[in-house]
Design brief:
binds 2-phosphoglycolic acid, 9-stranded mixed beta sheet, 11 strands, single chain, 303 residues, 24% strand, alpha/beta, two-stranded antiparallel sheet
């Protein structure tokens, strides 16, 4: 019988996912040569070619693709087993793998800091990315738990709504429309907008809102960070539409202002999302309860 280790399967699963030794190495906190050596060893032990190498580009061979299906199942089974071990130990130690939407990160770090004070032995990995990438991660059973906008129905996801996420139109404090009492959406459609990247939940919600009103909007800049949008808007690049979670300080300090446009703040909600079929570890369960009970203590807008 060929001798292969759990570690090799883990590394293979990661290299296969990213089709890159470098990215897998980053994810696994290993060096790139160590990853590459392990994969050569695995191919040797199994006596099949798992990868095709075209210059610097790596892709899975046919056999590699089929093996990936097994490695996914093995990794899933392994994680479920470790979660079970944590559960029977009934302790508050363990590891929490959490992914949050870019926008949710503005309050999540505060929640995590409080959670970690309560459970100092829990270690946490936090990934911050946009909605599209989060859905891919859930598809691959990567995170234990996710904070994002409402997920699409019918993808084997379980979601629990826990807090409002109002989107507001922001402008620089000297904007001409600042003091208008109530603006119609079509009165701002000729303004220029600074927007989030495609794949962002905020962007998706804005596009849907304008489309439902039969209107379009013009963008001047597209950025993948709320911080960058705030800077661009206060520098006069145009209007922005962002979650109020991201601009608490700037509104208080009058570095930015919100416009009174009908339909805004646009009401979205934050959801805790998990994937059916991925066992909830006691730590993930604890975090879920913590968020459901305490999250609103860590946000402070009341506009
Ligand atoms: P995002 O936020 O725009 O940072 O992806 C997620 C969401 O509102 O769904």
């Amino acid at each position: 019988m060929a001798h292969i280790s759990m570690r090799q399967i883990h590394i293979f699963d990661s290299v296969a996912r990213y089709e890159s030794h470098t990215q897998a190495a980053q994810k696994l906190h290993m060096t790139q040569p160590a990853v590459s050596m392990q994969m050569k060893q695995l191919e040797k032990n199994l006596d099949i070619e798992l990868f095709e190498r075209h210059g610097k580009k790596l892709s899975l061979s046919n056999a590699g693709q089929q093996l990936r299906e097994y490695s996914k199942e093995i990794m899933q089974g392994y994680e479920n087993m470790m979660d079970f071990v944590d559960k029977i130990k009934g302790c508050h130690t363990g590891h929490l793998t959490i992914t949050v939407a870019t926008t949710a990160n503005h309050f999540t770090t505060r929640i995590l800091s409080a959670f970690s004070k309560k459970y100092p032995d829990v270690t946490i990995s936090l990934d911050v990315t946009n909605r599209r990438r989060i859905l891919e991660q859930l598809e691959n059973y990567e995170p234990d738990i996710v904070i994002m906008g409402e997920p699409p129905k019918g993808h084997g996801l379980k979601s629990e709504r826990f807090m409002p996420n109002p989107l507001a139109i922001i402008a620089s404090p000297d904007h001409l429309l600042r003091d208008k009492k109530s603006l119609k959406l079509k009165e701002i459609q000729n303004e220029k907008f600074v927007v989030r990247e495609k794949g962002s939940g905020t962007r998706e919600a804005i596009e849907k809102h304008f489309a439902e009103a039969g209107l379009e909007y013009e963008t001047t800049l597209e950025m993948n960070s709320n911080e960058a949008i705030k800077h661009a808007v206060s520098a006069g690049f145009g209007l922005g539409i962002v979650s109020l979670h991201t601009v608490e300080l700037e509104l208080d300090n009058d570095h930015l202002t919100t416009l009174n446009v009908e339909g805004f703040p646009l009401q979205r909600h934050w959801h805790l999302v998990t994937r059916h079929g991925k066992a909830m570890s006691p730590v993930a369960e604890e975090f879920r309860n913590f968020v459901l009970e305490e999250a609103d203590k860590y946000v402070s807008f009341d506009r």
